[in-house]
Amino acid sequence: MPETRRRRVVPRGAARPRPATRAARPAGLVAVDVGNSDTVVGLFTGPELVGFWRFTSRAATADELGLRLDALARAHRWSRSLGAVLCSVAPVLTLPWARALERLAGGPPVEVSAATARGLPIRYHDRTAVGADRIANAVAARALYGTPAIVVDLGTATTFDCISQQGAYLGGAIAPGVATSAEELFRRAARLPRVELRRPVRALGRTTEESLQAGVLWGAAGQVDALVRRLALEMKGTPTVIATGGLAATVAPECETINRVDEALTLKGMRMIWEDAR
């Protein structure tokens, strides 16, 4: 006789077993971009960047950073269900921020690196040497603005990152940052005063202040244009050039080669890497 299967009888009114479900998706995402000069904290709800806040990067404990995150969460009514992603180029700050984010989100943050940006082909000789911020910028530029592309990140250093027509990270160039160069000039030249970085009236300065503003700002814009043109000659196609970073809004309008300004480009790339890593 063929074997017959017995059905399990569930008593009337008893709760039926539910199929296993995946862990609940966080309602929001906290993205922390730790640079050598500034740290930017961004909050996402889905793909939408709700807001971002910029602080001076400084040595701090995980407890201190946690208190800062708690204050932001209370002030802006963050959801209690949060994911976390960390992008850091300041090694001394990476661990404290990772611990602070783990306490906030209830689990370790995704850390941006060549390993976690799995969808980005990297053609650098040593893929592990590419800065986390440069990886996030490349991911966002490729997804949001198409390829080929060049990202100009105006921060402590001015970095130029090239993405091929096929969507691969090729490498680029690194130059001293605008503010970094100016600070070193002021430090070494005792008689030169510190000046506000703003658009000068003319290139031919008639005062020391005007001369410095013209040299620093338009000198930086000229550097950006010269390097972008040289990099574009070594790439196939006509790249879209996107400026980002703390000084993008100041420098980009003075450049001839910048097509777009996106101050939150790094944060957007971080969110995409977090999505892929889940």
What can you tell me about this protein's structure?
- A five-stranded mixed beta sheet has the order 3-2-1-4-5, sandwiched between helices.
- Mean pLDDT is 89; it is low at 1-6 and 17-22.
- The protein has seven helices and ten strands.
- With 278 residues, it is of the alpha/beta class.
- α1 (62-76) crosses α2 (91-105).
Name the descriptors.
alpha/beta, 5-stranded mixed sheet, 7 helices, 278 residues, 35% helix, single chain, disordered N terminus, 10 strands, globular
Task: Provide a quick synopsis of the model.
The chain is of the alpha/beta class and 278 residues long.
Mean pLDDT, nearest integer? 89
Backbone CA Rg: 24 Å
Helix content: 25-40%
Describe the largest sheet: 5 strands, mixed
Q: Give the number of DSSP strands.
A: 10
Query: What portion of the residues fall into strands of 2 or more residues?
Result: 15-25%
> So how many helices?
7
Strand order of the largest sheet: 3-2-1-4-5
Weakly predicted, low-confidence segments: 1-6, 17-22
Class per helix and strand makeup:
alpha/beta
- H/E topology pattern: EEEHEHEHEEEHHEHEH
How does the overall form come out from the CA principal axes? Answer: globular
| Span of the ends, CA to CA | 50 Å
Topology record:
Elements: E1 28-34, E2 38-45, E3 48-56, H1 62-76, E4 82-88, H2 91-105, E5 110-111, H3 132-145, E6 149-154, E7 157-163, E8 169-176, H4 178-188, H5 208-233, E9 240-244, H6 248-251, E10 260-261, H7 265-277
Parallel strand pairs: 1-4, 4-5, 6-9, 9-10
Antiparallel strand pairs: 1-2, 2-3, 6-7, 7-8
